[in-house]
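User: Run a structure prediction on this.
Assistant: Running it now.
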Amino acid sequence: MMQRLQRWLTNLLTWYCREDLREGILGDLDEKLAHASMTKSSRRAHWGFVLQSLGFLHPSFRRRGLFSSGSAGLWKNYLRISQRSAWRNGQYFSINLVGLVVAIACILFCSVLIQDELKYDRFHVNGDTLYRIYKNHIYPMEDIDERSAETSGLLAPTMSQLYPEVESFCRLYAFEDVNIFRDDESYRSTITQFADSSFFTMFSFDLLQGDASSALVAPRSVVLTESLAKKIFGNQDPLGQEIVSFGELTYQVTAVCADPPRHSSLQFDQLISWTTGVPGTGPLAFNWLNNWLAQATKTYVQLSPAANPSQLEEKLPAMMDDHFPERADRYFWRLQPLAQTYLHSADIRSQRGLKNGSLQFVRILGVSALLVLLIALINYINISLSRASQHWK
């Protein structure tokens, strides 16, 4: 950073200073920097270089013709005329000034909000290849035509087996307000997610302690967020500790991760391994999360960089005919880029455990900013025409 600033100042002085002084100024600065680097810290030496460089921006060192006296006088004349006009027409000037200030403030405010909304889910390293699967549920006989984020628990494993472009998958299911007990103390998890072991390799949530590839492999494994771990264990090391949580079962803390960023549509403060609910593997026999019929799971897939999501969608009806023919004529699976799940899911139901925004809200903000700018311009033109008409009279 300081070296980049040093180069920028050197280029500025080369452009600004007189030719007969330029070589001597730059040489003195380099010599003083070298001497200061031997007697002071590097940071203090570079700051000294910056301050000394700024001192050479005095007009006495300026090369001829850079800022001609004519152009300087012209700008002074403009400022003098503007000042006199403002004093002479104080009311008009105040209205124009207030209008422009309010317009600029509103535009900046809307721009900041729009940029904030557009930041969601942009931090994932694999974001360009991550997709959420949702379904179009169409059944004309019962007048059903809706979109839902709920999928079959066996959908993702089957896709992974059949289609090589599916590199990885992660299933999620959220429970709200789950109680946690330890040493006769009770705590509460606002959002508890059951998640596959691929969670931390697919999504870019920072793991502070533990191993990303194995944290959610074994049944009864739990990953806590930093804030929840601090609340439960204080300054103790939580790794390997046991808590009583969902289903009044004992879980072992296998990892601690940073709290999900605010700009993440996926929120949680406790992750429980998916194998905990697999019948025959874990103590919770969640058949409804591990079959084709029940629709409850949130499914995410990571495709290979060369994969075409539209072409993959076209293959899914054939998979339904083979593995779930009972709903093949009703359920039509769609792939939604992860970066679109926050703003483009207003008409997708069953969003528990997810944050959702509104694309319509973003559009309204953008239109509002343009309208404010237009009103400010019309106001300025009207006042200017009014002043001109008085002058003509």
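The chain has a mean pLDDT of 88.
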